[in-house]
């Protein structure tokens, strides 16, 4: 099992904070946001990580290197230009040969990824998504689910 972290965006909505630093490397306390995410992934039993990077990727690569200081193995899927979700996953394709977890590099979670992975395997699901219920009037980017949790 590998985790793919999408960390190649420009972070334009957070400018000027992201002019010299990629969004996942913005500090939360004394550590970059991405460090918390990597530690959460490791805590949930996933040790192999593919980081999809682009914009200012050297900053991320210099900080995390091969991941050994953080108890994980990191490989880098580098794209020359920032790509959307599908494009970033395409760059990671050569590193993935089995089931994988995909998360955005600017996110923090507190649920059990370990339990989610176990449930995914038990149900032999093709895709499993973690969603948060939120009432909204926005009509885009919304996922409708049935009472049984199916999309």
From TrEMBL:
Pfam families: NTP_transferase. Transmembrane segments: none annotated. Residues 2-151 form the Nucleotidyl transferase domain. PANTHER family: SUGAR-1-PHOSPHATE GUANYL TRANSFERASE. This is Nucleotidyl transferase domain-containing protein.
């Amino acid at each position: 099992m590998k985790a793919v972290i999408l960390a190649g965006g420009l972070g334009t909505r957070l400018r000027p904070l992201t002019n010299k630093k990629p969004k996942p490397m913005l500090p939360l306390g004394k550590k970059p946001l991405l460090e918390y995410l990597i530690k959460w992934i490791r805590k949930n039993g996933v040790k192999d990580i593919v980081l999809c990077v682009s914009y200012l990727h050297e900053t991320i690569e210099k900080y995390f290197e091969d991941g050994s200081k953080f108890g994980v193995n990191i490989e880098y899927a580098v794209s020359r230009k920032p790509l959307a979700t599908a494009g970033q996953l395409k760059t990671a394709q050569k590193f993935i040969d089995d089931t994988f977890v995909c998360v955005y590099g600017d996110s923090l979670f507190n649920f059990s990824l370990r339990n989610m992975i176990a449930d995914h395997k038990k149900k032999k699901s093709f895709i499993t998504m973690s969603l948060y219920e939120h009432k909204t009037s926005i009509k885009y980017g919304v996922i409708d689910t049935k009472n049984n949790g199916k999309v």
